[in-house]
Structure formats: structure tokens, C-alpha cells
Amino acid sequence: MNFGKPLTPEQTAAYLRTLPAIRERCTKVHELAKEGKLQYFEYHPEKEDKVAAFCLSIIQRDFGTNYAAISLHGRWRHLDAGRPRVEPLINKWKASANPPDTKEICKRLIDLFLVSVLLDAGAGNTWSYHEAQSGQKFARSEGLGVASINMFEEGFFSGDSSKPHQVDAEGLARVTAERTASAMQVSDANPMVGIEGRASLLQNLSKALKANASFFGSDARPGNLIDFLESESISSGSTRRVHISSLWGALIEGLSPIWPATRTKLGGISLGDVWPCEALKPTAVNEGDELVPFHKLTGWITYSLIEPIEKILEWQFDGIEDLTGLPEYRNGGLLVDFGVLTLKPGSIPKEFYPDPNSDIPRLPPSHPAIVEWRAMTVIELDRIADAIRSKLGLTREQLTLPQILESATWKGGREIAKQKRPATGGPPIEIESDGTVF
What kind and span of H or E run contains 235? Predict the structure, then answer.
């Protein structure tokens, strides 16, 4: 141990891939905001109460006072948009001539949920998906979710025609942008942002599954994470308990090969969704002090995998409170639309405003303004959640952050965006999505 000595770049890189690092580094940015020292945003904490009241109104509209009925934030709801799909699929498996056991059912759901999240980056304001079975049309996350479960049922991600309802390295290796576009009904008349990036993530996932047999097994399936987590769990009566850090660590390490090679590196280690924050540079002492980790897609995968594991296997996760709110454009847009965060006048050059008739900038994920916005979003979600609980007189155990993300902030960000920009429902700051971050 090097007590009293600065961390090496390799040690800092390892730290920046942990859950606690997200809140720690985002808190540093938030502290600067309270001092008015951000480069791009002004912070108006007096507006937080309006955000909390708006979110609370959505919770009460949709759930009344039955807070226990609020699910954890996860992909399951998007897969069931418009009608149930997941439970009928499970029932179809159980009624088959050779029904899978409970563990295999869960593995199949892990397969499905993981690829569905990787396909869930922002699709843009114009794309939609028409589901032939129901005759319904879906856009954005719901559209991507419905498309992904239909692709899964059709065997799109499986390399074994006798086992269509699985995801494996062989099947993912066959994925192309063209096949993905066709399955998602993308055309000149129905364009999707970042289709190449999505296909690339799936192709890279194939390589990651093969390279990490300790997590994904010899047959290279995401669902084999269940076997790894079982080895990390402890028996507790009739169930098993596993710490969230085991799932997080497996995803951070096991999926690290899927992220673009252009991402931030430290000590020769590719960090994934970690970015330099210009506002932190003046106080940085050691290499990596200016870096802020978000790991948004990893967080979204983690939230999404918890639910099927707890529902199907009846395992329990400890340490869920270490997970953060997701720094994406719905949660972040909520803060901008209510004026908690306002862009400093003149801070964004005119070339980032592509529409001369709009005051909405369009920025790449690497832009320092986006890094500030996302860092503030992580801490503000904690603060908004505390304000909601305070209004209700509830504890963090009675109304968890994952429940608030599911029932209030993400939904609230979408609803206020639709109110303010009814033509598109888009966010107050546009992101140049490549399909690998948002």
C-alpha cells in the first residue's frame, strides 16, 4: 500500500471505474457550482423545490400513495410498452415441450435486457417503430425496447438456430449496421441517430463475451453472469444475497472492450464513460484529478438486471444505495427546463446552434458543457429525491432513488420537454448521439 502517496495512474483508473467515484467526482463539480465557478452553467438551488413538487405530482397522479407499487428503474417497463411482452414470453417458455428451469429463464432475460439497454441510446426526434403484432407505434426508449424484444424473439442475437431466445457471441458477431437498421425499420423516411454506433456496440459485445469467460461462461452469453454472481453470493435462508459491487464490477470489467477506442485512457486503461471536466483542472494536482466518471449505460444495465434477478430467482441485492441517478438528457433536461441549471450567456459559441430559429444548442458528449451538465445531474437527482421524501415524510428505504428515477425524474424530464417543445418533445440541450453514451 502507498499510504500518504498519490495514486498511480493505474490506481486512479481503477478507482474511476467504481461506483463511489461517480458521486465523489460529481460532488466536486457541484461544490464548484455553489461557488459560481462552473464554466458553462449557473446554479439556482432555489428552483429545486419546483422540480420536487412537479415530480411529486407525477408520482401521486400515477401511484397515489401506494409507493410500494413503484418498481425499480429498469428496462422491463419499456419492453412492456403498450402491452405485456416479458411475462407472456416467460409463460411461452414454461409451456414449451422442453421447458427451461428457473435459472435458464433468468439467463434468457439477462441476455435480452442487456442487449436491449445497449440499443437504448437516444434515437432522435423522428424515428418510430411500428409493431405488426399489436398495430401500435412507439418512439424513443419504448420504441427501441419493443424493437429489441421482437428482434430477440426472432433469434436476431443468437448464433444457434435451435436456441433462438438467447444472446451469444456467435450471433452478435453477425450483427451489421444494415441488419440492425432493417430490424429497427430505419429508412430515409424513418431515420435513427447512431445506428452504426449501436451495431458496433453489439459487435464489440461479441468480442467481450468471448474474452471474459469468468463472467460470461464458455458459451459466451450475458446470462451466464448469473453463475458468476452465484459464486459471489452468500446463502441467506431460502434465498441468496449478493452485493451490488459484484454485478457492477463484472459489467465494468467484462464490458470494457465494447466502448469506442477513442474514450479517455489513464495508465493505458480505457475508462469508458469518463470525461475531463475543465472546471476541475485549476485544482487538479495528480494525473486524473480532472476526470469525472458517469458510466451511464453500465448504470442503466445494472438497474435493469437487478429486477429480473430479484423477481425470477428471488435473490436480494445489498448496497443498491451506492447506485446513482443516471446522467442522461431526460433527468438533466428536467433541471434545465425548470431553471435549476441555466447556460451562462455567450458560453456556447454560435456554431453549436444549428437552427438559427432555436435557442437549443447541439453538442457532442465530450463537450465540457455536457460534462458539467451530467455531473450536476447526478448530485441534483440525490437532492431532488431527498426533497420529495421530505415532502412525503418518507425515509430512503421507504422511497428509494431507483423508485424515484422510475416514477418521477425520468418521466418528469420527458413530460416537461413535451410541454415546452411540443413539436419534438426533445431535450433543452441536444446531444450528438453516436449510440454509445446516451
Answer: strand 234-236
